[in-house]
Design brief:
It is found in: Membrane. InterPro entries: Cation_efflux (IPR002524), Cation_efflux_TM (IPR058533), Cation_efflux_TMD_sf (IPR027469), CDF_Transporter (IPR050291). One of its GO terms (molecular function) is cadmium ion transmembrane transporter activity. With 296 residues, this protein is mostly helical. The protein folds into 2 domains: 3-204, Alpha-lytic protease prodomain-like (Up-down Bundle); 211-295, Cation efflux protein, cytoplasmic domain (Alpha-Beta Plaits), CATH 3.30.70. 67% of the residues lie in helices and 9% in strands. It contains 9 helices and 3 strands; from the N terminus they run ααααααααββαβ. Helix 1 (3-28) runs antiparallel to helix 2 (31-58), helix 3 (72-100) packs antiparallel against helix 6 (174-189) and helix 8 (211-227) packs antiparallel against helix 9. The two termini are 44 Å apart. 34% of the residues are buried.
Length: 296
């Protein structure tokens, strides 16, 4: 399935859950369900942001972006993660206020019905995102839907516990269940945006890719270096979005087996073949020099 179609599915799915959650939350007087609806509404806006960025990424603009637009992907993911973090913080503040005020009465029959519906629906959309996660934007959407699935599952368990407590002498605890669930879920959800910000922040700053990718590249460079008796090969690499940037400055000498432009191109071809197993688009630059100062 195309990236744009997957993102459109995410937008419509989030919109449906947002409307249902907000209406159902008001009917059942549940802060937790209202939070779920608000989260889904934020999801609509963030999915639209992903669609707009995807459309912009597809536009050719070599004059202004000679090195591509891949940095837009991690930037969008960071913006989305910051917005989700703010929503979670606001929810934590609200839930603490509710607990201090004595909790909130909830229509449990309505709340249980919504929680069951939301858990199943969010998981279905998450699976669709997960099986089509060929883009960092879709991976971020999938993470968001997984968060929503866990949110709905926790809500379902929480409301069931509240219903059980309502049949016991501990019924006085029931009003605290709803804001307590918001507090716990929001606190946990803050860890997911943090992870996304950390990963995509590294890409935005053009830091090195993951350890396994670095090791594969280093191994390929070392093999070519030995094969052609190169004096030195200085490697620089970074990953932005789905593009892997590899820059290699090769120092040759009289004993090296690289003399002509054709042989230099052969080195480039061998490196490209050795890196073919890395599932990313590659931007490979190999420079040759006899003076080590040009590698610094």
């Amino acid at each position: 399935m195309k990236v744009s179609k997957v993102l459109h599915t995410s937008v419509w799915g989030a919109l449906a859950f947002a409307v249902i959650g907000l209406v159902w939350g008001m009917i059942s007087s549940s802060q937790m369900i209202l939070f779920d609806g608000a989260y889904s509404m934020i999801g609509v806006l963030l999915a639209l942001l992903s669609l707009l960025s995807l459309r912009y990424l597809k536009k050719e603009d070599q004059a202004h972006f000679p090195y591509g637009k891949e940095s837009i992907e991690p930037l969008v993911v960071i913006i989305k993660s910051v917005i989700i973090s703010v929503l979670c913080l606001l929810a934590i503040i609200s839930s603490v206020s509710e607990i201090a005020a004595g909790g909130r009465e909830v229509v449990l029959s309505h709340a249980l019905g919504y929680a069951a519906f939301s858990t199943a629906g969010c998981y279905a959309v998450f699976r669709l995102m997960k099986t089509n996660s060929q883009s960092e934007l879709i991976k971020a959407e999938a993470a968001q839907w997984l968060m929503d699935t866990w949110l709905s599952a926790v809500v379902l368990i929480g409301f069931f516990i509240a219903w059980v407590l309502g049949q016991t002498p501990l019924t006085f605890l029931v009003p605290y269940i709803d804001p307590f669930m918001v507090l716990i879920v929001s606190g946990y959800f803050l860890t997911v945006p943090y992870s996304l910000i950390k990963t995509n922040g590294r890409e935005l700053l053009r830091m090195t890719p993951s350890k396994d990718i670095r090791e594969k590249i280093a191994s390929a460079v070392q093999a070519v270096k030995s094969s052609y008796r190169m004096e030195e090969a200085v490697l620089r690499t970074s990953k932005i979005g789905k593009t892997l940037y590899v820059e290699i400055d090769v120092v040759v000498s009289e004993r090296s087996l690289v003399y002509t432009v054709e042989e230099m191109d052969k080195v480039r071809e061998e490196l490209e073949e050795k890196l073919a197993g890395i599932p990313l688009e590659k931007w490979i630059t190999v420079s040759f020099t006899k003076d080590v100062k040009w590698t610094v």
